[in-house]
Specification:
about 200 residues, alpha+beta, Arc Repressor Mutant, subunit A
Length: about 200
């Protein structure tokens, strides 16, 4: 590896795991066309991963070889880069909260941005555009409750709340209560009735 690809890799190796590399952020190393070509070459050789159009990441080096960076860290970095909210889908939230036992087969996350696939080596993460209410209280237990109830649907909301409310802290309940204004009616009514009884 020589010239610009080598400089890009030296720069990438000085960055934390899962830092996105975009052509516009590498113009201090070379002209745009040359940077595009170098990134493409590095992705083909396996030195970088092409996550989606115009976004690359350095793979992690392990004793078993190169592997994808942590998906959690990668999505956090992409959320900051794009200015989007990105959260696990309702099925993952329901599993994490103990409402269901099966693990979702596919890696699906909800986003305030457009729907698109992200590629982390052999793992494809699907970003799905979601309405604002499903993205409420991101990365908090109250938000997981909202997403789990959305995924389970109106028929399951009462049973879900029976199972979940006793385990929520006062702070979680306050956050859930504050989000009622943007919930669909079927969810807001059930949450309101339960919180009033609590």
């Amino acid at each position: 590896m020589r010239g610009l690809p080598k400089r890009i890799m030296e720069y990438a190796e000085g960055l934390p795991e899962a830092t996105p590399l975009c052509p516009a952020g590498l113009l201090h190393l070379g002209k745009r066309a040359a940077v595009d070509q170098a990134l493409s070459r590095l992705a083909r050789s396996g030195h970088l991963m092409r996550i989606c159009q115009g976004v690359y990441m350095r793979p992690k080096q392990t004793r078993f070889g190169r592997c994808a960076p942590s998906i959690g860290k990668a999505l956090q970095a992409l959320s900051a880069l794009w200015g989007e909210t990105i959260v696990p889908c309702g099925g993952s939230a329901a599993n994490r909260l103990g409402l269901i036992t099966q693990n979702p087969v596919r890696e699906v996350y909800l986003t305030s941005g457009r729907s698109r696939p992200l590629h982390f080596g052999g793992i494809t993460v699907e970003l799905r555009h979601a309405p604002r209410w499903q993205l409420a209280v991101p990365h908090r237990k109250a938000g997981d409750v909202i997403r789990a109830m959305a995924w389970l649907g109106p028929e399951e909301v009462e049973d879900s709340l029976d199972a979940l409310l006793p385990a929520l802290s006062a702070e979680d309940l306050d956050e859930l209560s504050a989000a009622r204004a943007i919930m669909p009616i079927w969810m807001a009514e059930s949450v309101s009735a339960r919180i009033a009884d609590a």
